[in-house]
Amino acid sequence: MKKEYNQTRALFAITKASLKATFRSPQSIFFSLFFPIVLIWIFGSLGSSGIPKVKVAYEQGTDTSNILYGFLKQNPVLQAPEKGKDVEDELRKGRIAAVIDIKENRDSGAIRPFSIHLRTSSAAQKDYGVLVAALNASLAKTDSIFYPQKPSAATVSQSIVEGRRYRMIDFFLPAMIGFSLIGAAVFGVAFSFYSLRETLVLKRMYSTPVKKHNIILGESLAKVIFQLLTVVVLIGFGYFVFDFYLANGWITFLNMMFLSFIALLVFMGFGFLITGVARNQNVIPIYANLFMFPQYFLSGTFFPKSSLPAFMQPFIQFLPLTAVNDSMRNVAFEGASLWSCWPEVLILLGWGLLIYFLTAKFFRWE
Fold first, then answer.
1. What tens digit of pLDDT does each residue of 80-122 get?
2. N or C: which end of the chain has fewer CB within 10 A?
3. Region 231-236: what's the mean pLDDT?
4. Strand, coil or helix: what is 213?
5. Under the phi-then-psi rule, with left for phi > 0, alpha for psi from -120 to 50, and beta for the rest, what region is 86?
6. pTM of this structure
7. Which of 136, 161, 186 is the last residue in one of the domains?
8. Do strands 78-79 and 98-104 pair parallel, antiparallel, or not at all (unpaired)?
9. Beta strands 114-121 and 98-104: pairing type?
10. Strand, helix or coil at 189?
11. Could you list the residue range(s) of the whole structural domain that residue 131 is in?
């Protein structure tokens, strides 16, 4: 009696062989691991001591009709936060330096015409010196013009709320994970499967008793294992070297790994599609970069996407790399659950369904 071919054993054999080839590939190691680590090192080491500008908000009910408020608003060092942001949340995370409350002393016997109260955060204490200098400059201007006989136009008091500063590494490391995932998945799948097809390896494997889906699955599984290992290394490097913040510890780490897995499946679909439509190896980098490069600069990888024009924002939100970057940052720093990231996951799943539908139509074995 003929023994049935062991498909599971064949699947693991293909996975093992492909994984070995990936680990032996200098390009895979460089673009998936070395290059992102270098970028994390550079941006993680950067401070924020360049341009002396701080963001401040004003308490509800602040007297906006007085002259001191006008001078503070004109001060180029003091900038307003972005519209639509939760001021209390921004204060706790150190994204704004203070919430300012200005009151006019209407008592004719008051020594100082105004009183200023600053609500600052422990997360923004490094900006406090710049804030005080800007505040003193506005007060001096007010004194010299309107109150030359007064010791100072206002008394200043401060209260501090607890918070944690949103640092460069907290913004940048999740983006580097997305950067690594999209580059390795698209290029890795596109080049490897194209090479297997052109060297007739796929055709030979197709003629064996191994089922077609196991051939694809084995190669894909090797890519997934390798790339998830690089994600572990990137998170570990950021955590131990730059104190990257994991809001809920191991839960956050596992959530980031799950999001990485979903992103990998989607990005690998683009690699399969490029493999199917590419007529020669020279066009693969062109197709891959047409897909990846716009997202590097539109999806908040190197700078906040809010810096881009408003008319682009609705389009940007639906890019797959935007969904990865936003969900990673929300999970890592905000401590968000996977369930709260359902819009980003839904965007990724939508892209996945579309891309694998197209892949099924264009993928070729020879």
1. 877 767 788 777 777 788 888 888 776 655 567 778 888 888 7
2. N
3. 93
4. helix
5. beta
6. 0.67
7. 161
8. unpaired
9. antiparallel
10. helix
11. 54-161
